[in-house]
Amino acid sequence: xxxxxxxxxxxxxxxxxxxxxxxxxxxxxxxxxxxxxxxxxxxxxxxxxxxxxxxxxxxxxxxxxxxxxxxxxxxxxxxxxxxxxxxxxxxxxxxxxxxxxxxxxxxxxxxxxxxxxxxxxxxxxxxxxxxxxxxxxxxxxxxxxxxxxxxxxxxxxxxxxxxxxxxxxxxxxxxxxxxxxxxxxxxxxxxxxxxxxxxxxxxxxxxxxxxxxxxxxxxxxxxxxxxxxxxxxxxxxx
Length: 238
Hints:
Layout: E1 5-18, E2 22-29, E3 33-39, H1 49-52, E4 59-65, E5 70-78, H2 89-103, H3 111-125, H4 130-144, E6 164-168, E7 172-176, E8 183-184, H5 185-192, H6 199-217, H7 223-235
Parallel strand pairs: 3-5
Antiparallel strand pairs: 1-2, 1-4, 2-3, 4-5, 6-7, 6-8
Helix pairs in contact: 2-3, 2-4, 2-7, 3-4, 4-6, 5-6
């Protein structure tokens, strides 16, 4: 019996050549999470799928189950073709896709993460609060992966605005006396609420997310960071 087709909405997060004229595409979808699908003949210029199957474009997908965890892409339609992201923000959008490609393997709905991804792309496209957007998405991704940062002390108590804490990736936050590396409880609680209204809160959020993501990524290289630095160097902005 032939496999039944089903519909979903999603985005291309990665694609590569598969055999002669096809593509193997990784999608981030609303109802099935991260899935991989073969787009037959999509590499051909004459095939309309090639123009549609671009990152950052919302797609209506018609999919069919294949062997194991692999799917076949029967059809796709762009829901909105006017979704261009210009430099340098394109590197930020690519960064989101790299994080999803390397870290997110869940084949089940994650509506909160999917909504965060859409909002992040919209903000990046319109150049609106891009730094805040990246930190918010990172926190949401870590939570979806089961590695969310727990803003409690090592005894399970709420962080006190008046106290100071040190942080390690394995032990979390533990109370300490004031020193140059200590983090004030009030600042930590601000970050926990995702209230990135100051340079200090943004820097701390970046530090916490960077440490957590680095541990998960291991030896994997985020190429968008390298390309962004190269862009700044060529543009004379560094």
